[in-house]
Amino acid sequence: MKIAPSILAADMADLGGALKVCEAGGADAVHFDVMDGHFVPNLSFGIPVLEALAARTRLPIDVHLMVERPERLLGEYLRAGAAWVSVHWEAASHLDRVLSQIREAGARAGVALNPATPVEMLGDCIHNLDFVLLMSVNPGFSGQSFLPRALEKARTLRRILDERRLDVEIEMDGGIGAGNIREVARAGVDVSVAGSAVFGTDDPVATLRELQRAQEIT
Q1: In the chain, where are the structural domains located?
Q2: What pLDDT, in 10s, does the model give residues 127-182?
Q3: I need a surface site. Which of 28, 41, 195, 209 has the fewest CB within 10 A?
Q4: Distance from C-alpha of 110 to C-alpha of 126, rounded to nearest angstrom
Q5: Which helix (H) or strand (E) holds 173?
Q6: Catalytic-labelled residue, pool 33, 36, 62, 130
Q7: Contacts by 76-80, CB closer than 8 A, 24 or more apart
Q8: Are 81 and 51 in contact (CB under 8 A)?
Q9: Residue 158: what are its φ and ψ, rounded to 5°?
Q10: What angle do CA 40, 155, 206 make, to 5 degrees?
């Protein structure tokens, strides 16, 4: 399973250092949360921050757009260096068009689902996806507790993908750490986002390596 540390939980005064942690710890991607203060209550990173970080890392940047009408900002985030982009099913009025725009720009296209949104709502767009981001907390705040029902949701989505023989990865975001990452992997998740579980420790590099070992299925 891949691990994508969320720099939303890092020291905001040292995001360059957070990138170094991700690289030294063997992360597979860097998770970059964008919040607009409307779709979710908080504000977070803008386009100039993404552009600066993308120029300083070899890792793909996984941009999670927690914004209303993501099509307004999508082109700018793609040009700034987003390698993976997920938009919320709950926020995109013209989802198929948005996914096509992401793919045409050469990025990986994903749809994020809030905890209360069933995976069946993906409908026909599931065939146009590279990944699905399942929220295991309610979006908008770092440091929340994991919602266990997300595991069954991941298992349901994995069954759907396997039955349709679709090459679509499952990503999960929220409350994932050493205590549950193996269970998350066993539920069929391909990419785990970890924020506070990495950057909230005294040695984030060592913690990231521990998470990688902990998720191994024996």
Answers
A1: 2-214
A2: 999 999 999 999 877 667 899 999 999 999 999 999 999 999 999 999 999 999 99
A3: 41
A4: 9
A5: strand 169-173
A6: 33
A7: 76/47, 77/34, 77/47, 77/50, 78/102, 78/105, 78/107, 79/105, 80/47, 80/48, 80/50, 80/51, 80/54
A8: yes
A9: -60, -40
A10: 70
Side chain identity at residue 170, one-letter code: I
Q: Does the active-site annotation cover 173?
A: yes
As its CATH architecture, domain 2-214 has: Alpha-Beta Barrel (3.20)
In this structure, the dihedral spanned by the alpha carbons of residues 213, 34, 141 and 94, taken in order and rounded to 10 degrees, is -100
Please tell me which residue in 96, 167, 173, 202 is annotated as part of the active site: 173
Claim: this prediction has a pTM higher than 0.90? yes
Tokens of 192: 């785990």
Q: Is the dihedral of CA 114, 118, 122, 127 positive or negative?
A: positive
pLDDT tens digits, residue range 1-60?
Answer: 999 999 999 999 999 999 999 999 999 999 999 999 899 988 899 999 999 999 999 999
CB 105, CB 80: distance < 8 Å: no
Nearest to 142 by CA among 214, 42, 15, 67: 42
- Among the listed residues 115, 112, 109, 150, the one whose alpha carbon sits nearest the alpha carbon of residue 127: 109
